[in-house]
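Progress report, Aim 2. The chain analyzed during this reporting quarter is listed below.
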Amino acid sequence: MLLIRPKIVVLMGATALQALLDPRAGITRVRGTWQQRDGIWYMPTFHPAALLRNPELKRPAWDDFREVVAKYRELVDPTHPGPAA
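Predicted structure tokens for the chain:
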């Protein structure tokens, strides 16, 4: 029995990506691309520690979260406000 059934899961970093989707996947290769499994949409993105080590990754991570908001609007709540540009 599942206690929760999310529509969207954000995978933050390679460990989360590999544990939930593909043990061989690399975060740099698949980040920012939607993956779907068993009716759940997954968005892989960089781990927050990676953003601290390399600030140039912040823009791509921000773009990933904008995609998450867009998917949330599509699947759950079309009136949900998005992040500022």
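Helices lie at 14-20, 27-30, 48-53, 58-75. Residues 58-75 form the longest helix (18 residues). These observations will guide the mutagenesis work planned for the next reporting period.
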